[in-house]
Amino acid sequence: MKVLDRYVLRETLAPFIVGVVGFILVLTVDLLFTMADLIINKGVPAWAVLKLLVYKLPSLLVMTFPVSTLFGTAMALGRLGKDNELTALRTSGISITRIAAPILLLGLCVSLVSFLTNEKVVPYANAVSNQIIRQIIYKQPLPEVKDNVFFKDQQNRYYYAKRVDMKTRQMENLMVYELTDEKYPRVILAERAAFTGKIWELKSGVVHKYDEKGYLNYEAAFTDMKLNIAEDVLNLAQQKDVMDMDRQELSSMIAALGKGGVNTASMLTELYLRYSIPFTCFVFALVGIPFSLSGPRTGQTWGIIVTIVFMFTFYVFASIFRSLGRGGVLLPAVAAFTPQLSFAAIGFLLLVREARFR
Predict the structure, then answer these.
(1) Nearest 5°: CA angle at 191, between 189 and 192?
(2) Distance, CA of 309 to CA of 90 (rounded, Å)
(3) Which residues span the domain enclosing 30?
(4) Can you give the pTM of this predicted structure?
(5) pLDDT digits (tens, 9 = 90+) for 129-145
(6) Which residues of 256-270 are buried (b: 16+ CB within 10 A; e: fewer)?
């Protein structure tokens, strides 16, 4: 690594770290007030509250990484511009793209760290924190009714129920598909089901089988059907929300529900967001570079102001596209990646323009 790279990285890393710490503190202010109230007025054990804070940190980190990358870029280039170091580098024949290279590399590395954190740490931490909130802090029993329950057993059977009532032990809109020696699984659909132990009684349903090309070649309607379950797969206390699943679990769920005819647009959008959200760190580094270059009349503050406005615009844009994807208006991949790719293109064009005209 050359001296220039180390110098620019050092200038960017310091405000980046400050940004991570600062933004986490801002995000946890409300949580800290709530925690103090839980300890003092509601008698919740301090260890439970501290444990909740620890398990909330991974998701907060993923949220702060893009903003901190933008903040680090703006502060570093703003300082270099203010002290005329950028001008000295440019007059020495060093292009702006060469100066930007270590910042882009940092943005790429932060994106990778964000992706790994979001994949390996955040789902587990979210599941534990939700359990702490429900069972320890608010002392709420597990819900008797759950919607959109998905699970599988060790015999490669996948189950989906639109609604499960643990009190009456009834299910609505049940879908079961099991992998067999054939290419496509057998699918069982039932309007209702009652479960007692490991015996399920399915009502008003149909059985589907498919040929080698995936076309339906067998259909049998039934009024009543009993299904023997080898194990207690309805341990609903362990069921995960979509946000608590890693990519592999979420992909399996989408594949199972898709084969059963369930609309998976919302879940597919969430799956693609697992890739696009970490990429935001690199996008913010790319966009922040041209907007943070100080001109002779603008000063350092201008770059920071513009990047904050740009950041706000991006998140509004991303929120709209996420909602459109979850609602099925846009294809999930389009909804998840359009904001990042659009802003990356803008940042790239602006950076090329800076390199050409300055």
Answers:
(1) 110
(2) 27
(3) 3-138+267-357
(4) 0.72
(5) 877 776 666 555 555 55
(6) bbebbebebbbbbbb
